[in-house]
Amino acid sequence: MERVKKRNQYDKAFKLEAVRLIVEEGRSVASVARDLGVNANSLHHWKKRLSADGTDAFPGHGRLKPADEEFRRLKRELQIVTQERDILKKAIAFFAKHGK
After folding, report:
1. What mean pLDDT is predicted for residues 52-68?
2. In this structure, what DSSP letter does residue 38 have?
């Protein structure tokens, strides 16, 4: 039977604290990784995301950053408006042809 390794999930507070130890206390990534039992690559990724996204970093499992959520909402709204426009175009063409 093959063993499947479960992927660890860390909450936002844990990630922020881990990055704080690196940035504010000047500790090495390797040292923090060893002390917290986290992969060093994960710490590098968290640090990069925090510097890029600021307070919007680490929104949580299945959640989007506010800007991405707004983009998704606007994209869906545009899709609906485009469908409504196409329906109205067809209705105008129908009544122009059969309205006489």
Report:
1. 73
2. -
